[in-house]
Design brief:
Largest sheet: 6 strands, mixed
Radius of gyration: 20 Å
Shape: globular
Strand order of the largest sheet: 2-3-1-4-5-6
Strand content: 15-25%
Distance between the termini: 30 Å
Helix content: 25-40%
């Protein structure tokens, strides 16, 4: 950075963790102010460790949006995702544990022993706008606070942007002093190719997630970008030949919609016209082999 940050500037890593579907990616996107992590109602939507950056006058937050910690299902992909979560917890300066207001499950409880000691964890109670009785919030928070010593408890609604400023203040005062790690206009450490692939995968999850829950991933095979536009070729990798017609839909309607909506999102991010081609490739059992997962870009 060209300008020297003010005295007492704070900068650090913040892990956003929780079981699947509590709103981690929605919260991360809302805090940063733009869409870095993809969002759907399906578990396993976030599969990677994604860093989003928010720079303010006196702080720089480097948010690490992690996959939902998996306790119900085994398999190579879930083992790999759980390693991403546990590694993030050991490396960051502040942990934000996200739970859903009024709902506490075995999946939530299994994360508690992994949380660092020493007042590094902030409990975020998300979706408070969905509570039928606001009076239920206090006993719910009291129950959780009895199980772990949290540095702070912040009820929020990520979708409505409620209490996010309070949460940022709580995080900021726990970041270490230090110079910013990224330029002020940086939003993520991930390349646009990665974000584009994630946006395509989000459309697949939203449109055919019930029929094709976890057997697909997206690889960008061609990326040509110039001043006036971009040409992108993406491959959707599925595990079975029977997945192909599910993705295509009647008359190819599913794939047309997936490609159209993803192209629009990518064009908004690049701020230029995008030509997007999407095709399908079958790679049997890719999600159950760690070697195949590494080949496809999983950590």
């Amino acid at each position: 950075m060209t300008a020297r940050p003010p005295e007492g500037y704070r900068c650090g890593f913040v892990a956003v963790v929780g079981r699947p579907n509590v709103g981690k990616s929605t919260l991360t996107n809302a805090l940063i102010g733009t869409k870095i992590s993809i969002v759907s109602r399906k578990a396993q939507t976030t599969r990677h460790r994604i860093q989003g950056v928010l720079t303010r006058e006196r702080e720089q937050f480097v948010f690490v949006d992690t996959p939902g910690f998996q306790t119900r299902h085994g398999g190579a992909m879930n083992r790999m995702m759980n390693r991403v979560v546990t590694q993030a917890l050991s490396e960051v300066d502040v942990v934000v544990l996200v739970v859903e207001a009024g709902k506490w499950s075995e999946g939530d409880a299994k994360l508690l022993p992994l949380l660092p000691a020493g007042g590094k964890t902030i409990l975020v109670v998300n979706k408070v706008d969905l509570l039928k009785r606001r009076d239920d919030l206090f006993p719910f928070v009291a129950k959780l606070s009895a199980q772990h010593e949290f540095a702070a408890v912040v009820p929020v609604s990520a979708t409505r942007g409620k209490q996010l400023d309070v949460l940022l203040q709580e995080i900021a005062q726990r970041l270490p002093e230090g110079e910013p790690m990224f330029e002020p206009d940086t939003l993520t450490d991930r390349p646009m190719r990665f974000i584009a692939a994630e946006l395509i995968r989000e459309k697949i999850f939203r449109l055919v997630g019930d029929e094709l829950p976890y057997g697909s991933t997206v690889v960008i095979e061609q990326w040509e970008e110039h001043e006036k536009g971009a040409r992108i070729a993406a491959c959707v990798v599925v595990e079975r030949e029977s997945h192909r017609p599910i993705l295509l839909g009647a008359g190819g309607e599913h794939m047309k919609r997936i490609a159209t909506e993803a192209r629009q999102d990518i064009a908004r991010l690049l701020d230029k016209p995008v030509h997007l081609e999407v095709y399908i490739k079958v790679r049997k059992g890719w999600s159950e082999r760690e070697s195949a997962l590494r080949d496809l870009g999983y950590e």
